[in-house]
Design goal:
By secondary structure, this protein is α/β, with parallel strands linked by helices. Helix content is about 30%, strand content about 25%.
Length: about 500
C-alpha cells in the first residue's frame, strides 16, 4: 500500500484485476471495467492536451450516466480535482460555484461519445492560482449553508480512500455484488456507495429517475444486492402498501442503506417487514466528515432503537456545551467528531474552516446526548431549535412523540415566528390512512409524553412531508408553506384555547 492513497489508482487497479467484469450497467447497455478505464484515459488525455494543471479544479456535469463516472475518473488520472455539478443545477447556482472555483474547464459528456471534443468546454481563459488546499484533493463538493451561499468542501484522496476502508469494515462490500444507484453523485452518500462498489469489484446498476413504484419493481425483478436511499424514499415505498401495490420480498437484497434525515423506529420496523432478508443500515455523517461516522445496523437498532449506532473505525466524538466544555451524560449539547477522515477545509475560506473546528474536532452543529447505556442519542440540528416562550425545544423530540400515536406515518415539526411567544410549534402530520385524525385525542396523548411547553400549537396534514432537491425532508420548506398559507391548519380546542 502506498503512503498516500489515490482514488483514481484504486479504481484503475480494480478495473485491471477483472477487466471483463461489468463496471456499470444501465437499462440498455453495460460498460465493462476495461471500457471504463479506456474512456477515463481518453478524458485525461484531453484535459492534459488542453493544458490542465496538477490539482486544478475541473467542473464535471453529472446525472448518474456511465460517462459521468468515466469523466470523474479521467479528471483524477489527469491529476486534477473533480467538482461534480448536476446537469439540472440552475444557472445562477452554477455561476456562484464558478466564482468560487475559478475553474477553466468543464466536462460534460452527456449522451454523446466520451471521445468527442464537445465534452470539454472552456469557462475562462486564465488558470486559477495554485491552491495549497487542493494538493492531493479528489473532490470539491458544494453544499449550501444557512445563508444559501455555496460552500466548497475539499475532500482529499487519501482521507476518502481510508474512510472507504473504514466503511467497508462495517458493511463488507464484495466482488460481483450489484449496487442499485438511486442517489446523485453530487452528494457524498451517492459518491461513497459508487466508489466502494467499483473498488470492491462490484457492479453499479443505474436506471432513469425512479419513483417509489419503479424502485420496488426494480428491486423485485432484477438481482440487486444493495441500495442506498433517504428515509423519504422509504416512506414512499411504504405508502404503496396502502394502495395495494404487490410487495413481494426481495430475496437477494442484502443491504438497504439510509441516512440524511432521522429514521424513526416505526419506519424502520415497517421497512424490515417488507424486506425481511435485508439489513437496514442507518448511517450518520456529514459531507465534511466524509459520511458514515456512525452505523446503526438492524441488530443494533432492535436492542437500542434510539441510539445513533456504532462509530466507524478511527472515529471519536464528544458532546460539549455552548462554551465548548464537555458535559455530563444525559445533558444535551453539540456533537463533535474527530477522525483521520475529515475534510481538508472549505475552499478559499480559512475563517469558515477554522470556525468549523474546535481542538481538532469538527463541529457538526447537531444536538445529541449520551444516555445511561453510554450510547449517543441524536436530537437534530442546533439551527432548528424552536425557542417557545424562552424554552428550547428540538423538533425531533416532538416528532418522535407524535409518530407514536396510532394512525400517523410520519411527522415534521418546525418553529414559526410569534409576537407573544417568540416562536410557536407547528407540526405537519402524514396519516397512515385516509381516515381523519382525532386531534383532541392526539393532544391528550402528547400531554402524557411531553412537557407542557412542548405541546404543538398547530397541526397540519398532508400526504407527504416536503422534500428538497436532495430528496431529503426539508424543514425550511415546511416553514415557507406555513407562513405563505399553502397549508391550512386543523383546529383543536384544548383547555379553552384553539390551536390553529
Amino acid at each position: 500500500m502506498s503512503s498516500s492513497l489515490n482514488l483514481g489508482e484504486l479504481i484503475s487497479n480494480a478495473c485491471s484485476r477483472a477487466p471483463r467484469a461489468v463496471a456499470i450497467e444501465t437499462d440498455d447497455a453495460a460498460v465493462d471495467r476495461t471500457g471504463l478505464l479506456i474512456q477515463a484515459r481518453s478524458v485525461a488525455s484531453r484535459l492534459q492536451a488542453a493544458g490542465a494543471c496538477e490539482n486544478e479544479p475541473i467542473h464535471v456535469r453529472v446525472s448518474n450516466l456511465p460517462s459521468d463516472f468515466a469523466a470523474v475518473l479521467g479528471v483524477w488520472l489527469a491529476g486534477c480535482v473533480a467538482v461534480p455539478i448536476h446537469r439540472t443545477t440552475p444557472l445562477s447556482a452554477c455561476e456562484a460555484i464558478q466564482a468560487k472555483t475559478k475553474a477553466r474547464f468543464q466536462l460534460d459528456a452527456g449522451e454523446c461519445s466520451i471521445d468527442s471534443s464537445a465534452i470539454l468546454t472552456r469557462l475562462r481563459i486564465e488558470a486559477p492560482e495554485p491552491r495549497l488546499q487542493l494538493e492531493g484533493a479528489a473532490f470539491v463538493l458544494f453544499t449550501s449553508g444557512s445563508t444559501g451561499s455555496p460552500k466548497g468542501v475539499i475532500i482529499g484522496h487519501h482521507a476518502f480512500a481510508m474512510k472507504l476502508m473504514a466503511i467497508d469494515s462495517m458493511t463488507h462490500f464484495k466482488a460481483g455484488e450489484r449496487t442499485l444507484l438511486v442517489l446523485n453523485i453530487t452528494f457524498v452518500f451517492g459518491i461513497w456507495m459508487s466508489l466502494l462498489t467499483l473498488i470492491s469489484g462490484g457492479t453499479l446498476v443505474i436506471t432513469k429517475k425512479l419513483g417509489s413504484a419503479e424502485l420496488v419493481d426494480r428491486l423485485h425483478h432484477h438481482p440487486i444486492d444493495r441500495v442506498g436511499v433517504v428515509p423519504t424514499m422509504l416512506r414512499g415505498i411504504l405508502a404503496l402498501i396502502t394502495q395495494g401495490h404487490d410487495m413481494k420480498p426481495c430475496a437477494c437484497l442484502r443491504q438497504i442503506f439510509t441516512g440524511g434525515e432521522q429514521l424513526s423506529e416505526s419506519l424502520a420496523e415497517q421497512v424490515e417487514g417488507v424486506f425481511p432478508n435485508a439489513d437496514l443500515i442507518n448511517i450518520y455523517g456529514l459531507t465534511e466528515t466524509l459520511s458514515c461516522d456512525f452505523f446503526q445496523h438492524s441488530s443494533f437498532r432492535r436492542v437500542k432503537p434510539y441510539a445513533l449506532g456504532l462509530p466507524a473505525s478511527g472515529v471519536s466524538y464528544r458532546i460539549v456545551d455552548e462554551l465548548g466544555a464537555p458535559i455530563a451524560p444525559g445533558q444535551q449539547g453539540e456533537l463533535q467528531i474527530r477522525s483521520p477522515y475529515l475534510m481538508v477545509g472549505y475552499l478559499d475560506d480559512p475563517d469558515l474552516t477554522a470556525s468549523a473546528h474546535s481542538d481538532g474536532y469538527f463541529r457538526t452543529g447537531d444536538l445529541a446526548f449520551i444516555n445511561t447505556d453510554g450510547d449517543i442519542q441524536f436530537r437534530g440540528r442546533q439551527k432548528e431549535i424552536i425557542v417557545r416562550g424562552g424554552n428550547k425545544v428540538t423538533p425531533m423530540e416532538i416528532e418522535q412523540a407524535v409518530v407514536m400515536f396510532p394512525g400517523i406515518t410520519s411527522a415534521m415539526a418546525t418553529g414559526v415566528e410569534d409576537a407573544l411567544l417568540g416562536e410557536k410549534i407547528h407540526v405537519l402530520i402524514v396519516p397512515s390512512s385516509t381516515a381523519s385524525l382525532d386531534f383532541e385525542r392526539l393532544q391528550a396523548f402528547l400531554a402524557g409524553r411531553l412537557e407542557k411547553y412542548k405541546i404543538p400549537d398547530a397541526f397540519y396534514t398532508a400526504e407527504c412531508v416536503p422534500v428538497g432537491r436532495t430528496g431529503k425532508a426539508d424543514r425550511r420548506e415546511l416553514k415557507v408553506m406555513i407562513t405563505t398559507g399553502l397549508l391550512v391548519p386543523a383546529s383543536v380546542k384544548q383547555s379553552g384555547r384553539t390551536l390553529a
